[in-house]
Specification:
By secondary structure, the chain is an alpha+beta fold. The chain is 37% helix and 26% strand. Helix 1 runs antiparallel to helix 2. It has a 6-stranded antiparallel β-sheet with strand order 1-2-3-4-5-6, with helices on one face. It has 2 domains: 80 residues; 47 residues. Strand 2 and strand 3 form a beta hairpin. The longest helix has 23 residues.
């Protein structure tokens, strides 16, 4: 791993109330829509259970930052090399940004990490990070400092 520098963009991601609200709205909305669809009750209950499990997993990974796939820190150096640190771990993993969505309130990234087979998704809400580093991070992503592969 390369040495850390003061000029690197580092985001320490914390709990987000905005992301909590969005995930609750989407999942509970799906459960409400399921009520309107004429489906047999056993199927409806199974789909509700799946939506509940999806809500729990999404909250654990993207809001509470717990579990093996939860990223708590992301860093970009001056050359556009991105690395991440998982929750509860001390080691850094170099990764490539495969897709991105950048907005002033929310940034969504799909990251291909060298040590993992499947890409990892990362949702960064504006209220979960410091404002100035998040602004600089969004600018760097929009200017394609970190090229999408």
């Amino acid at each position: 791993m390369y040495p850390r520098s003061e000029s690197n963009l580092i985001l320490n991601i914390k709990v987000s109330r905005l992301l909590t609200g969005v995930l609750l709205f989407v999942h509970l909305g799906g459960m409400a829509l399921l009520m309107a669809v004429p489906v047999a009750w056993p199927v409806r209950l199974a789909l509700w259970a799946l939506l509940g499990m999806s809500l729990y997993r999404s909250l654990c990974i993207h809001v509470w930052r717990q579990g093996p796939s939860a990223i708590e820190t992301i860093e970009m150096d001056g050359e556009g090399v991105v690395s991440v640190r998982f929750a509860g771990k001390d080691d850094w993993h170099v990764c490539q940004i495969t897709s991105r969505f950048v907005h002033s309130w929310l940034t969504l990234l799909s990251l291909k990490i060298e040590s993992r087979r499947w890409p990892v998704s990362l949702a960064i809400a504006a209220d979960a990070v410091e404002p100035e580093p998040f602004r600089r991070w969004r600018v760097a992503l929009r200017l394609r400092v970190a090229p999408a592969q």
